[in-house]
Amino acid sequence: MMSADVSDRAVTAAASHEHESPFAGPDEAFEAAKQGMWIFLVTEVLMFGGLFVAYGIFRGLHADMFQEAHRYLAVSLGGTNTVVLILSSLTMALGVGATQRGQRDRALLFFGLTLLLASCFLLVKYFEYSHKFHEGLLPGGYFRNEHLKHPKAPLFFSLYFVMTGLHLVHVLVGMGLIAWLLKRTVARQFGPHYYTPVELVGFYWHFVDMVWIYLFPLLYLVG
Amino acid sequence: MDTKETEPAARHHHILPTFTTVLVGLSLLVLTGVTILLGGVELGRLNFAVAVLIASVKALLVALFFMNLLYDRRENSVIFGASFLFLAIFFVLTATDLFFRGDVAVKGPISAPVPAGGKRVAKPWLATEALVGRGRELFSQQCVTCHGPEGKGNGPAAASLTPRPRDFTATVGWKNGRKPSQILKTLNEGIPGSAMAAYTTLPPDDRWALAHFVVSLGPAAEKDSPEDLLKVGVDVAKGEAVIREAPSIPIELAMRRLTRPELKARTKARTPSPTQTPEGARVYQARCERCHGPEGEGAIVGALGGVPRMLLRTGPLSISKAIENESAFSEVVVRGLTGELMPGAADLSERELRGLYRHVQELSGRP
Amino acid sequence: MEDNYLTHGKGLGSWLTTRDHKRIAVMYLFSVLTFFLLGGIFALLLRLELASPGKTIMNADTYNKVFTYHGAIMVFMVIIPAIPAVMGNFILPLMLGARDVAFPRLNLASYYIYLAGALVAASALFLRGADTGWTFYTPYSIRTNTTATIVLAGAFIMGFSSVLTGLNFIVSIHKLRAPGLSWSRLPLFLWSLYATSIIQVLATPVLAITLLLLIFERLFRTGIFDPALGGDPVLFQHFFWFYSHPAVYIMILPAMGVVSEVIPVFSRKPIFGYKAIAYSSFGIALVAFLVWGHHLFVSGQSELANFVFSLLTMLVAVPTGVKVFSWVATMYKGKIRLKTPMLYAFGFLQLFTIGGLTGVFLATLAINVHVTDTYFVVAHFHYVMVGGAIMSLMAGLHYWFPKFWGRMYPERSGRITFALLISGFNLTFFPQFILGSRGMPRRYWDYLPEFTVLNRVSTVGSWLLAAGFFYAAFYLYRAMRHGERAPANPWEANTLEWQTPSPPPHDNFPEIPVVTTWPYEYREKGFFPQGMVP
Q1: CATH top-level class of B261-365
Q2: CA distance to A41, C260, C274, C363, C519, per residue, from C187 (Å)
Q3: pLDDT of the residue at A21
Q4: CA-based nearest residue to B212, from B180, B244, B237, B234
Q5: CB contact under 8 A, A35 and B58
Q6: Among C174, C242, C305, whose Cβ lies nearest the Cβ of B100?
Q7: Nearest CA of chain B to the CA of A91: how many Å?
Q8: Does the pLDDT at position C23 exceed 90?
Q9: Domain layout of chain C by residue ranges
Q10: Average pLDDT, stretch C439-467?
Q11: Where do the domains of chain B lie?
Q12: CATH numeric code, B129-241
């Protein structure tokens, strides 16, 4: 009597009366949580995407200005940060894998490495930003640099600061989440039987990496 | 390759093999290097496309492997992919506006000396039926919103205007007069301190047409004498007109001026310095300080919410520049400056003007 | 009444920490109604000021602030959450045959985020307020000396609530359907919530970044939207309307879903064009994202963009027309029961049709140039938003009243209120079409004397509306406490929420039902509940 396209839920005669979870079992809950995370990442794509749209519009209108202004960004620092973040994604993926295999000590190591690499990212960003402040390469109305004379150049730096700034906030949040994973891993709350938060935080971190993968060439390398 | 011995028997709990994980990580690093290298190579317009392409490959690697989409339900890939589709819609449709505005970088004066059709009227200062008809057409496009369909000054926008638009059927209140040449002067210059703009974007023939039509709306007006016509550049004896337009500068130049550093705000509050001319200082404070600053250094504060902005045609609003003589000063103060933001203050008495002049001299003499 | 979700767990603490979607829905209900009252009071003040030309009760600066508050409150705090967060939260799991939404704790978080954002925005009322209009156009919104930043921050926070609710609903519909509840048996209210949730998830983040960028403009002078710093103010409008246009479909799609439920039940006939209505919800959701530029026709947008957006906007009338036609066809040869929910469904049809048609007029470039920023636009959007969404909210509040409270509302009071609302609404807003086409601009504190009579008529209409809403609040509250007890299925409807007691128990169903039919099997002499045990 049931049609072929029935949902995942198993039918049990003594259906769960617990209000804690509306799901039949842990697998269904995991699948749902994962999908929820993907939908959340959709919202992040659209939010960052708005900034990329602004970037695209201004770049299309003032390509020469972007050419000139982007030279004031340090490719070496941006490139270093790209490498750092990619490595951190790698360590994160290895940490998730270790948790899934029940290798607690390895998981701790990889989460710790991820946090270390993220801190490197922060440090490099600190140098970059302070250099910009020093040179007067500031957003919009605060722009003060004497060498970069194009009248629209302040807009480039507005975009630079808002895009990398929002990304930075996401890095900080991610670091908090990974630290939380570390704490819970120490407390032996994860393993092959349950690793939902680990996987989902991993997704978040990989997404943060993805955003930088686009930010780096578009801001630092475009030419 | 999967280490399945400790995992429960569920369908979508794929564990990425360590080897694959490391391989993908290395690929990402290699691609990063490629991107940086290619960034240094001059490929013209391709640079951008190549950079985005490589970035997309990297992003795909992260999504498919690190985020497991390759092994996950198709549903989740569709969900994630859909977001990029809508982002593309956002960009493309916004671009149909921002990239297709047309040439807004006007390179020269804005006014159009020749009408769209190309033909000029021989002696536009003489009213003809054709000219009045043309004026009626233009009036219904350009003027009705404020002046109303019968020119009574009761158009839909009139409710919000102070001073109200001129009632063309009345004989009083005309700032420049009711003769055609005087109406033309109004069209050429606008009325400072009101919403009546200068219609220099219309060809002069069209302005004459409007002038003749406006005259026809009210009771009979005086005709232009040769001296009147001379004032607007028409030499009747020679039968020709010299077009003297109000000064204007290209938009580009205006925009460059706007971003000059010296136009940044100077909003520090100052305690007023002692003055020798209290009456002039009083008038100055009430009428001039808002734009010219307490010391005459130039600023516009208050009216625009405390953020100084200037709309200029020439230099900063500073009256520290030399004021030649009292009568020229009074003329500027009473009439305002055509086409500038400086409004006229016709209500000041002789005594107030004198006091103001002395005060301004005092200010400009200050270090 | 036996133990139900209202009695399960006593005390304020049990409500504030609940994970029960039904209790969360009730909390949303009271918050939304409170903000509706606040926004409504601002509306009444506006109409009082406009009862005569010149100053009546407030000066122009205050007027600017009052219409800003009215718009921001009604859009962000009332209509966007109303049907999804109140009816959606309560009914969706029940209609799915589930015990709750997919993420109950996230649901509670959604509510608190909404409340926090609303309170942040409302706090501006005690400071310097905001006078930019709810649309916050630049450059004025950058310059204004008011506390607009706080209102922006509040709206930013509220956006996350909308997103998380949408996320919750999508995953619930995907993962929590009862056995036998296939896609082709899903009630249309759920189809509409599904489409709404997709819009919420895709569009709201762009609002978030827009508001954030505007806050940065004010705080850090970034200049992206500021012409004095080289930016483009029309770009702000693109950013703003990319969300705000789909937002109006967030408001109307659930409303249409309610109508799709009410009409078959009260016509005792299967819905006409089930698939068409379901697909049209997605059609509307898709086209919703393609048309935002029609708010920018006179902004200085390029001719190409004007052309493209006008063309695309015409398209949205098609799936909308499909729905209206299907509803009318459902009623044809049905056995109509004119109970209050059905009266509001009729009201919806009348008012939404007028509103929708005038939308087509506005999509026509040549007409738009004349009536844009006039009262014509004001009338148009009030017809669709109030005449559409609020009428449907009233329909839903009455239809599901017995399910929420286990009691019936008094039918006569329902009819009186409907009469007040439908007449008050038309009296308030129809004259505004005329005022607009004759040139009265919107957001103006003053107007030409020739517009006085119609403005006065409109103001009187607003008093009828107020009377209707106040009376409704009164009798609904009284019925909630002391109304006649209602059975599980007083309307003899098929959908799953009616196969459980009124009010439902804490975990919705004694046993998860097994679904065997689609929801619209109605015959003159019978009906076929979805969860009937075979």
Answers
A1: mainly beta
A2: 28, 9, 9, 32, 6
A3: 76
A4: B180
A5: no
A6: C305
A7: 9
A8: yes
A9: 22-527
A10: 95
A11: 18-98, 129-241, 261-365
A12: 1.10.760.10
**Mean predicted confidence (pLDDT) in C275-286:** 96
What is the 3-state secondary structure of chain A? CCCCCCCCCCCCCCCCCCCCCCCCCHHHHHHHHHHHHHHHHHHHHHHHHHHHHHHHHHHHHCHHHHHHHHCCCCHHHHHHHHHHHHHHHHHHHHHHHHHHCCCHHHHHHHHHHHHHHHHHHHHHHHHHHHHHHHHCCCCHHHCCCCCCCCCCHHHHHHHHHHHHHHHHHHHHHHHHHHHHHHHHHHCCCCECCECHHHHHHHHHHHHHHHHHHHHHHHHHHCC
Q: Which member of C19, C177, C507 has the closest CB to residue A17?
A: C507
Tell me whether residues B51 and A89 touch, CB distance under 8 A. Answer: no
In CATH terms, the superfamily for domain C22-527 is Cytochrome c oxidase-like, subunit I domain (1.20.210.10)
- Which residue on chain A is closest to C210 by alpha carbon? A50
Encoded tokens for C467: 């009377």
What pairs with residue C484 in β-bridges? C408
Is residue A3 very low, low, confident or very high in pLDDT (cuts 50, 70, 90)? very low
CATH hierarchy code of domain A51-221: 1.20.120.80
What crossing angle do the helices spanning A75-100 and A196-215 adopt, rounded to 10°?
160
Distance from CA of C102 to the nearest CA of B (A): 16
CA distances from C261 to B290, C417, C493 (A): 63, 21, 9
Q: How far is A34 from chain B (nearest CA, A)?
A: 9
Q: Check CB contact under 8 Å for C220 and A35.
A: no
Asked if A9 lies within 8 A of C201 by C-beta distance, the reply is no
* Placement of tokens 């002789």 in the chain: B350
